[in-house]
Amino acid sequence: MIRLVKFLIPLILFFIAVVFLFKGLYLDPHEVPSPLVGKPAPAFTAPILGKAGKTFSSEDMKGQVWLLNVWASWCGACKDEHPVLMEMAKTNKIATYGLDYKDTDADAQAVLAAEGNPYKATFTDVEGKIGIDYGVYGVPETYVIDKAGVIRYKQIGPITDEILFTKIVPLLKELEK
Amino acid sequence: MIPEIGQFALILAFCFAIVQGTLPLIGVWKNQTGLYNLAVPAARAQFVFIIISFICLDYAFYANDFSVLYVASNSNSHLPLAFRLAALWGGHEGSMLLWVTILGVWTMAVTLFAKTLPDSFRIRLISVMGMVSIGFLAFIIFTSNPFERLIPAALDGRDLNPLLQDPGMVFHPPVLYMGYVGFSVAFAFAIAALLDGRLDNAWARWTRPWTTAAWVFLTLGIAFGSKWAYYELGWGGWWFWDAVENASFMPWLVGTALMHSLAVTEKRDAFKVWTVLLSISAFSLSLLGTFLVRSGVLTSVHAFATDPGRGLFILLYLVIVIGGALLLFALRAPTVGLGEKFDVVSRESMLLANNVVLVAAAGSVLLGTLYPLLMDSLGAGKISVGPPYFDAVFVAIMAPGLFLMGLGPLARWKKTSLPEIGTRLRVAAVISVLTALLVPFAMGKITLMSAVGVFMGIWVVSTTLILLINRIKSRQVTTPNLLENIKGIPLAFYGMLLAHFGIGVFILGVTLVKGYESEQDLRMEVNDVAKVGALSFKFEGAKEIAGPNYTSSQGKFVVTSNTKEIAILHPEKRFYPVQGSVMTEADIEAGVFKDMYVSLGEPLENGAWSVRIYIKPFVQWIWAGCILMALGGILALMDRRYRIANKRLTKETQDVQEAFDA
After folding, report:
1. ipTM for this model
2. In B, which residues are within 8 Å of A26 by CB distance?
3. Tell me: the pLDDT tens digits for B23-39?
4. For a surface tag, which of B112, B161, B460, B466 has the fewest beta carbons within 10 Å of its beta carbon?
5. 3-state DSSP: chain B helix, strand, coil percent, rounded to 5?
6. Neighbours of A45 (CB within 10 A)
C-alpha cells in the first residue's frame, strides 16, 4: 500500500498545480495596484497645449474631482480609447484633462483637430518628467483624483465601456457627494 | 476559397487524428489486425492534411489576403516577404497551427524511421501521438481558428509586431517547437511501454535517439532565442528568466536528465521507473509551457491575447494528457522492478546525482515561475520573482552537478574507486585552480564569483579532454595505430565529450560576461568621443534613412584603438508607422574575446543623442557553447550502434514471425 502511494505522488503534485493554474486563469497578472492610489497626486506645473506661454498647476484643481488621462499621438491604444473619452466629454459630468506624454505639440494638436478633443485642457510633458512622478509605464493611463487632491483610482491601459460603467462612474458619484 | 480549403483540411486532419488515436489501440487490445493496421495510414493522412492547412494559411499571408482576420491582424502589404511567411506564427492561432504541424512532422518521422520496433509497440506509440494531436487540433478548430474571415476585408493589415520583424523570427519558433514538441515522442514511448508492460533496455535504446534529437532542437531553439534577445532588445541582456524562457528551459533541464537516465536504463537496466517518469515530465513541462504562454496567467514579454476560455481548454487538456499519463504511471510502475544493483561510488550513482541536480534545478525554476501565481491566488498580494532569485538558486544547485560532471564519465559501472578517479584528475584539478586564479587577475578584477565560475568552466573542459586521452590510452594495447584507435571510438562517445566541452565553454562565457562587462550611458553630441578602456567611440551623427516599412535614424560610430580604426557601427532607432511603435536596433561588432555593442537611446537637441555603449567580453562563448552541445547531440545520433542494434532486432523478430507462420 505504502509502495503504491509513492507512485501516486507525481499525480497528486500535478493536481495541486492544476488547482492553482485554474485559479490563475481568473486573475489578471497585468493588474498591478499602483502604490500611488490613496496618496496625494504629485504636484506639477506644465505648459497648456495650444496656449503658448500659459501654464497649468495641479494645485488649481483642489476642490474638484477630475480625471488625468495620459495619452500621446503616437499611441495606438489611445486611438481605441478615444471614442470612450468623447462619450464621457459629451455628458459634461466628467472633467477629463489630458497629459500629452513624450510627444510634439504639432502632432498632438493634429490628432485633436482631426478626431475631436475630449479634454477640458491638455498639458504637455515632452520629456516625460511628470510621467515619471506618476509612475506611468504605458500609455494610455488614467488617474481619478478627488477634491483633496488624492489619487483614488488608476486605470492602466484604455478605458473601456465596461470599466467606465463598473468602476469609474460609481467612484465619481461617490466622490462628488 | 484557399482559406476554406485550409480550414476543411484541418477538420479532416482532426478526423484522421481521432482514428489514429483510438482505433489502433483497441486493435492492439482486442488483437484485431484490421484496426491496428489503420495507425500508419491514418497518421500519414493526418500529416498531409495538416501540411495542406499550413500551406493554405501561409498562402494567405503570401497573397496579402486581408479578408482573413488572422492575416489582417498580423501582417501588412509592406512587410517583406520572408517576414510575411514567418508572420504565420506571429500570433496565437498560427503558433498553435505551427505546434500541431510540428507534431505531425514528428509523427510522420516515427512512421518512417521506427519501423524496426515490434508491431504492437509501434502501433501503440503512433496511436498515443494521435491522441496528443486530437486535443491540439480540437483546440485550434473550436477556440482559435486561424482561417476566420473578416468581412468586409481590411484595406491593409495591422502589421506584424515590429519586435518580431527580424531574421530570428524565421528560425527561432520552428526550431524551438521542434524541441518542445519532439519530447512528445519520448512521452509516447513511455506511455506505450507502460501499456505494453515492456520496460527494458531495448525500450531505452529505441527512445534514446528520439530524445536526443528533440534535445538538439531545443538546445538550438533556446540559443537562437537568447541571441535574438541580445541584439534586438537593445540593452545587451541574453537571458531574462522571463516566464516563457523558463517554460522552454524546464523541459530542457528535464530532457537533459532524461538523456542521462536513459543511458543507465539501456546499459544497466536500472532507473527504469525514474526514466519513465522523466519521459512523462519532459513533455508535461512542454505542455505546461504552452499553457503558461497561451493562457496569459503570467506576465511575459511573449504574452499574446489572453482569454480565460482558451486557457480553460488547454488546462482541461493538460488534466487529461498529463493526469492520464501519471495515473497510468501510478498503476503500472510498481510492477516494473528495480533493475541491477550498484555501489554508492559508481557511474550509476554519479548519473543519479546528475539527475537529482537537474531535476532540482528544474524544480527551482518552476517554483520561481509559478510563485507569483501561487501568491496571487492565495490572496497574498502581487509579487514578481526576478533574476536575483533565479541566479542565486540556480547557480547554487548546478555548481555541485558541474563538479560531478568531471568525475562521472570516468567512473565505472557498478563499482568504482574514488582514489583512482582522483589520481586521474589531478592534472585537471591543478589546471582549473591555476586558471581560476590567473584569469580574473588578467581581467583586472578578482571576485569570488568569477574565480568559481572560471574554475567550473575549466574543470569541465579539462576533465573532458583527460577523458578523451584516457580512452585513447586504454585502447592502445589492442589498437596500437593511433589513427585507427581514434577512428574506432564510437561517435556517441565523441558526442558526449563535445556536449560536455560545450557546457564548459558556456560557463566560461557566462562567468566572464557577468563579471567583466562594462556599460556607459551617455549623451553624445556630433563628433563627441567616448572612451571605454583602450577603445574610443566617435559619434559622427545620425541620418534619416527609409526601410521597406519603417523610417529610421541611423547613427554612425567609428571605433578606434590606439588611433587605429577597428570598426564602424550603425545603430538605428526605427519607427514603424502602422503600429506606431519605435524599435531600437543595436549594432554589434562581435568578436571571440569581446563584443562592442552600441545602441541609440533618445534624440536630444542639436543632433545629440543619448547613447549606450557596452563592452561584452566573451559573450559569444555562451552561444558557441550551446552550438557545441547541439553538435555533440548530433554526433551521438549518428552513432552506428542504434542502426546495427535495430537491424539485429528486426532480424530476430522476423525469425520469430517466420517460426510462427511455419
Report:
1. 0.83
2. 308
3. 999 998 888 888 888 99
4. B112
5. 70, 10, 20
6. 12
